Amino acid sequence: MSNVLTDFKERTIEYQELLSDFKALLKKNSLKFTIQREVTLETLYDSNEHLTPESLHKLIQVKFPDLKTGIATVYRTLSLLEDSSMVTSLSFGAQGKKYELGAKNHHDHLICIECGDITEFVDDEIEVRQESIAKELGFTIEDHSMQIYGICKPCKEK
Amino acid sequence: MSNVLTDFKERTIEYQELLSDFKALLKKNSLKFTIQREVTLETLYDSNEHLTPESLHKLIQVKFPDLKTGIATVYRTLSLLEDSSMVTSLSFGAQGKKYELGAKNHHDHLICIECGDITEFVDDEIEVRQESIAKELGFTIEDHSMQIYGICKPCKEK
DNA sequence: GTCGCTGCAAAGTCTTTGCAGAGAG
DNA sequence: CTCTCTGCAAAGACTTTGCAGCGAC
After folding, report:
1. How far is CA A126 from CA A56, A107, B7, B76, in A?
2. What mean pLDDT is reported for chain A?
3. Which CATH number does the domain A105-158 belong to among 3.30.1490.190, 1.25.40.10, 3.90.180.10, 3.30.70.20?
4. Which residues of chain A (84-143) touch nucleic strand C at CB < 7 A?
5. I want to staple A11 with a disulfide (CB 3.0 to 4.6 A). Which of A15, A92, B40, B50 is the partner?
6. What is the DSSP string of A66-133?
7. B98 has pLDDT over 70
């Protein structure tokens, strides 16, 4: 497989590490490193956004029109990444899920119910409390997600 | 509409209040108080659980077989209740949503990824932190939801 | 070469909608 | 009476799956 899409000069260290992790994950499970999988990871990384499978697919089609990547592959890659905790999904009141990279850089979300925009934040105090609540109840935390819904500053000003 | 299903002697004050709120809500929007809507609210109240539209529908069919309540009506009633904040929905990694009564009795959720069981908890410290984080970012909170995923005590012991 | 991967289209889920008759107000 | 509701079935939205050829290793 060529490195056309991953010229190291144009990629951050962070992305290189992500890509290595992904390759390691694939190897570990005897899965293959395909250009579609690479492109999916890369597009998700570049977008810095919370994407639905559909919007990710559209982005990929725009960036790599020659690949004709199918949406089924995007779904399959996202499932794979989610199962290995390389991406996290957020569910909303509405239908569908949004995906983002990096369960490791943990953060929570402020979601604007007007414009749908998502702001991230982390709060150590909350993280610590969560751990102790779980402990009290004999529960072992694997993951968590917190969403605060409301109106963001720009929408209030409108 | 008869009161067959809501004999006050058999119902808690809490349920009576809920029902009044519901009736008020309907009246306010020129909607009708139908037996299907009542049964849906009542079944949700009695179950004390987090139900999917499908499981709620099944429960209703078992409790009130003569009504032949359609699942479409359950969906419609749940949307109505959710829009008016009388019920809250939780989304999961998997498909579908679960509904529960009472946004007013706010609480968060510990969700077991083994058995799907949901334990509720409330923590004032977290609630307070959420408010101050939102304030810092110029965000007005309307609602929030927090889910902690992991393995519950019974599942660990198995 | 082998065996997993891909795109496509078909099949599955879950949810919403159109409609004609039923029923609340 | 009027106008909303309901059940049904059909349509929609989103996601998964089967398959035959393709491509990574």
Report:
1. 31, 11, 44, 36
2. 83
3. 3.30.1490.190
4. 95
5. A15
6. GG---HHHHHHHHHHHHHTTSEEEEE-SSSSEEEEE-SSS--EEEEETTT--EEEE--HHHHHHHHHH
7. yes
Q: Does A155 touch chain B (CB under 8 A)?
A: no
Determine the 3-state secondary structure of B138 from DSSP. Answer: coil
Q: Which nucleotide is nearest to B34 (CA to C1')?
A: C24
Mean pLDDT of B35-53: 91
Burial of B117 (0-12, 13-18, 19+ CB in 10 A): middle
- Beta carbons of A138 and B156 less than 8 Å apart: yes
| Mean pLDDT score across all residues of chain B | 83
CATH architecture of A1-104: Orthogonal Bundle (1.10)
Count the helix, strand and coil residues of chain B and give each as a percent rounded to the nearest 5. Answer: 50, 20, 30
Suggest the residue from A52, A81, A85, A91 to mutate for an interface test with chain B (most B CBs closer than 10 A): A91
Of B92, B151, B156, the CB nearest to A91: B92
The answer to whether B139 and A110 are in contact (CB under 8 A) is yes
As a rounded value in angstroms, the CA-to-C1' distance for B132 and C22 is 52
**Strand A108-112 versus strand A118-121 pairing type:** antiparallel
Q: How far is the CA of B110 from the C1' of C17 (A)?
A: 35
Dmax (CA) for chain A in angstroms is: 54
